């Protein structure tokens, strides 16, 4: 079973999503929270496989909660589910480390499929969000920077693009977690990007990953 936690300040939203997920054979809602602060506390307590996180909430918003959760539990997989599609919300959420970004207009089945995909280590972005990210990177008119990567760094970039965590990369390549972190830092620096998500988008944009 994929264990899921819902974080949303609207009880009816939580009820609707929870009701649909409860009839799925492979998904179980194990916790709910009405704001980011409680969501942060429950995330560390219950350690769900996937967290559905709203953005705008009292006490602590979804971006801050995402940052705190990932700071204390780096393996967390968080999908932002919100009504907002503007730059001021999308980019901070992605940069905070969210594994996915969906709109609340998504159907219940689309949300369930996103949970499964994220649990497999894949990234799930609303098509409009993907387009925005691509446009943002294109505007930078960046040169071909990946030629500067070593063979090992190129190998790790491919695994990052597959949604692998640092620990999963370390296990697959039989190297230490510290070594992976060093390579990831070098990759971000050489590609002149801010985070793993932008590195993955760079890889797709330049045809490194098909």
Q: How helical, in percent, are the residues?
A: 40-55%
The largest sheet, given as strand count, sense and whether it forms a barrel, is: 6 strands, parallel
Number of domains: 2
The CATH H-level superfamily of the largest domain is Response regulator
**β content, as a range?**
5-15%
- Strands of the widest sheet, in order across it, are 2-1-3-4-5-6
CATH topology of the largest domain: Rossmann fold
Q: Roughly how many Å apart are the termini?
A: 30 Å
Radius of gyration: 17 Å
In DSSP terms (H or I, runs of 4 or more residues), the helix count works out at 10
Pfam families: GerE, Response_reg
GO molecular function, one term: DNA binding
Domain Response regulatory: 3-119
Protein name: Response regulator transcription factor
Write the layout of secondary structure elements.
Layout: E1 2-7, H1 11-21, E2 27-33, H2 36-46, E3 50-53, H3 62-72, E4 78-82, H4 87-96, E5 100-103, H5 108-119, E6 124-125, H6 127-139, H7 151-161, H8 166-173, H9 177-191, H10 196-205
Parallel strand pairs: 1-2, 1-3, 3-4, 4-5, 5-6
Helix pairs in contact: 2-3, 3-4, 7-9, 7-10, 8-9
Give structural attributes:
Rossmann fold, Arc Repressor Mutant, subunit A, 6-stranded parallel β-sheet, 13% strand, globular
Describe this structure in words.
It is a single chain. The chain is of the alpha/beta class and 210 residues long. The chain has 2 domains: 2-136, Rossmann fold; 140-205, Arc Repressor Mutant, subunit A. The protein has helices spanning 11-21, 36-46, 62-72, 87-96, 108-119, 127-139, 151-161, 166-173, 177-191, 196-205, and strands spanning 2-7, 27-33, 50-53, 78-82, 100-103, 124-125. Strands 2-1-3-4-5-6 form a 6-stranded parallel beta sheet, sandwiched between helices. Helix 4 links the parallel strand 4 (78-82) and strand 5 (100-103). The longest helix is centred in the last third of the chain and has 15 residues, at 177-191. The mean pLDDT is 88.
